[in-house]
Amino acid sequence: MSLRPWLPTLVGFVLAVALGLSRLTRPEVIVGWLDPSAWDPTVLFVMIGAVSSFALVHRLARARRPNVCPTPTKKALDLRLVGGSVIFGLGWGLGGVCPGPALTSLGAGASWTPLFVASMVVGLWLGAPERWRAWGLAKEGKSRV
Question: Is the pTM value of this prediction over 0.85?
Fold first, then answer.
């Protein structure tokens, strides 16, 4: 039996455990990271671990199969990229949660997560045609908004 079909589930499980152990599923930890008067360096160490782990795995994957991890061809910053980053950052800073920890918290039964995840799904659904057009998977002119 191959592990390949189960790999995404295994990676998701490991990520959920890591988010739970690092307390990044708790919005007050993220807000504390952004508050200079009550700064908590825990998030910094988690970020260093995440970025270094990703860099290592990405480098190994690219060396083994370059087409699996292609480098983006678009190098210029545009309004869509910057605007999306600002919206994501503001939402994360104000709410103290982003999609990964929200899904982990939903699985853990946190009371605030159903509304957050429902809102996230609506946002993804509204933005999907734009992404599909960018990827060349949808016809121009069809949008939900």
Answer: no
